[in-house]
Amino acid sequence: MIHRKVALVAALLVSAASAASADEAVPLALPASAAAAPASESGAPVQQDAQAQHIIRMADRVRAPDQPFRYSVKLSEFQGGKSVNQQTLDISMRFYKFSERALKGDARALVRFVEPVRDKGKAMLSDYEKMWYYAPDLRRPIPISKQQRLIGQISNGDVVAADFDYSYVSQLQGEEPCGKTTCYRVALQRRWPFVTYPKIMYWVEKDTFYPYRADFMSDSGVVIKRSYYSDFRSELGQMRPHRIVVEDSLRKDNYTTMDYSDVRYESLPDSYFQIDYLMRLN
């Protein structure tokens, strides 16, 4: 199946731009309409926790920049602790300012398939709400689902809606030990139906705002998968995670690693993030 060969990794999860330190950082400003009355996917108003929103925004800037960038990601699937599948992608991200795309169009991703060699020429495009896939044997790009499983525990939506502040309403649940430090525990509820996961429980280190763990859940609160952020190294002037391990909710020895490299700023023209451009990549 074409969809099972598709892999998209995006901003959620990558190294990013320089930012101020935690003590100096100033929360980003949302449009007045959004800040005044955030709503769930049902349209009912949901009270936004200001402290939780600040925590999420700071963690978002650790994971991904707020300006155009490019990176490579290697996906490795493990079953029973043994490597069974790998894929490498070259991804360009373009973030739009509020004045350009408001809340629902904050990011576009252009994904080029690099390895295995048989996948060269394939590409994907995301404009935040929708996604398309193209291969040389197709006449036109075709729409794909964010919920479709790609490789191992990774689905399409895992790599597009990387900015949790845009996609979710957040509530601070408290603080608790995580590893060798203390984390904020924040509950996230999606703002719109096209966001891949209805709920996320998110742990963010208190002193650094580094993301530590994320539990992706169904509407009923069942954990679908669990992600751990690690290998923090200096990138573009700031410490950032270079590895994400995504565990199967039932078997911890079934997992997928996402390893990031060659992260750099790159500003591509808007024309690169159009459906027709996918057919010109070859």
From TrEMBL:
Domain Uncharacterized protein TP-0789: 105-280
Domain of life from the UniProt record: Bacteria
Signal peptide coordinates: 1-22
UniProtKB keywords: Lipoprotein, Signal
InterPro entries named in the record: LolA/LolB/LppX (IPR029046), TP_0789-like (IPR033399), UCP028205 (IPR011220)
SUPFAM superfamilies (UniProt xref): Prokaryotic lipoproteins and lipoprotein localization factors (SSF89392)
Keyword field contains Signal: yes
Name this protein carries in UniProt: Outer membrane lipoprotein-sorting protein
Organism: Paraburkholderia silviterrae
Organism lineage string: Bacteria, Pseudomonadati, Pseudomonadota, Betaproteobacteria, Burkholderiales
